[in-house]
Amino acid sequence: MPSAFSSFAQKLRLWGVMSSLCALVWAGMASAHEVVPTITDLTLQDGAVVFDMDVNIEAQLSGIDLDAVDDTDNAENASDYDVLRALPNADIAARAEALVDRWSAVPLLSVDGASVALRLESVEVPDVADGELPRISDLVIMGTLPEGATNVDVSWPAGAGDLVLRQQGVEEPFTGFISGGSSSGPIALTGGDAASGWQAFATYIPVGFDHILPKGLDHILFVLGLFFLSTQLGPLLWQISAFTLAHTVTLALGALGLVNVPGSIVEPLIAASIVYVAVENIFARGLTRWRPVIVFGFGLLHGLGFASVLGEFGLPEGQFVPALIGFNVGVELGQLTVIAMAAIALWLGCRAAMAERLTGVEELVAEYPVMFRAWSMTGSLIIAGIAVYWVIERTLL
Q1: 3-state SS string over the chain?
Q2: At CB < 8 A and 24+ separation, what contacts does 366-374 make?
Q3: Is 314 left (phi over 0), alpha (psi -120 to 50) or beta?
Q4: Is the peptide bond prior to 214 cis by the omega test (within 30 degrees of 0)?
Q5: In angstroms, rounded to a whole number, what is the distance separating the alpha carbons of residues 310 and 207?
């Protein structure tokens, strides 16, 4: 039989391991500078191809490999980006032409296999109240079409992150998600290149997954809050089922435009939902009667948050339903991955804490609730602290 001191030391060791892991999560989330895709509408106008882009000019100019990082703070040359972000709007606008010249050299636009030079038409750099948020500028560039042009090809530079390209003004328009270093392939200027149902479904699965891992920090914390309630599978399934059903409903309604709640309302409430589940984990010992109902209500809020992401990306009109389903499947896969990673970390933590006296699986299972409580208390406290900060931050902005 282990001594009381030995048992206490093992629990203390686990507490320390979990605290360190959660502190790293805190550090990453508190200073997040999320890499966002460039959203571009492609239209024809008076014999020219027009790109109307929502783009983070500073991130593109900084030299950061946006394909390799999800947070600009994690890049080796993050300081270059911070210097650019500190510049006045007029200075950033003045540098936009150099960015367009860089894209022309790729080339960004090819017409029937021949490269086409681009020219800057206009640039609007917005004021951003919070210095922790990126400036998303409106950049309009154009390329002249040669006579008889039938197809265009858009090549997005390596290291430039992701590009959402949406063809406008034609029937069956092309809508694509293009990674850095790849191209759209030929796009018919007269339309007709809309994705099939299966293509749209497959394309939007990684978009949904990416919104959870690694970019959905608030959704990750909420799912971890559900996981931290109990070691039993039943309570987790009840909560995940309620959450999934709820956010599926509002995701669909929001994407269809039937429900539209401003982000200034939704985002603080999402943060508040994280606070609630984390605090309840600290005081509750298991699944209460009302917890699934409350989680369902919170799921409705998170669904509105997912819908705002789809609003930015835009769903292909002809394949709206398969794209929506694909996005939701990606979200679910992301949530399940978060739970699986948490379960593996818990298992490894328990084994590490009991390594000195572990004789079999039965002994590990017997100690599992105690170990889990150490994990749950530490994780829930830190999650609550992060979410309280977000509530204040999102309410005051």
Answers
A1: CCCHHHHHHHHHHHHHHHHHHHHHHHHHHHCCCECCCEEEEEEEECCEEEEEEEECHHHHHCCCCCCCCCEHHHCCCHHHHHHHHCCCHHHHHHCHHHHHHHHHCCCCEEECCEEECCEEEEEECCCCCCCCCCCCEEEEEEEECCCCCCEEEEECCCCCCEEEEEECCCCCCCEEEEECCCECCCEECCCCCCCCHHHHHHHHHHHHHHHHCCCCHHHHHHHHHHHCCCCCHHHHHHHHHHHHHHHHHHHHHHHCCCCCCCHHHHHHHHHHHHHHHHHHHHHCCCCCCCHHHHHHHHHHHHHHHHHHHHHHHCCCHHHHHHHHHHHHHHHHHHHHHHHHHHHHHHHHHHHHHCCCCCCCHHHHHHHHHHHHHHHHHHHHHHHHHHHHHHHHHHHHC
A2: 368/231, 369/231, 370/11, 371/11, 371/14, 371/346, 372/231, 372/346, 374/11, 374/14, 374/15, 374/18
A3: left
A4: yes
A5: 9
Token pair belonging to 56: 């983070």
Q: Which residues of 311-344 are buried (b: 16+ CB within 10 A; e: fewer)?
A: eebbbbebbbebbbbbbbbbbbbbbeebbeebee
pLDDT in tens, 62-100: 988 888 877 777 777 888 888 898 889 999 999 999 999
Nearest to 313 by CA among 37, 13, 107: 37
The neighbouring-strand residues paired with 138 are: 54, 124
Distance of CA 117 to the CA centre of its chain: 33
Query: Which amino acid appears at position 225 of this protein?
Result: G
pLDDT band, residue 314 (cuts 50/70/90):
low
Instruction: Show Cβ contacts of residue 293 under 8 Å, excluding neighbours closer than 6 positions.
Output: 242
Q: Which of 329, 337, 162 is nearest to 251 (CA)?
A: 329
pTM > 0.85: yes or no: no
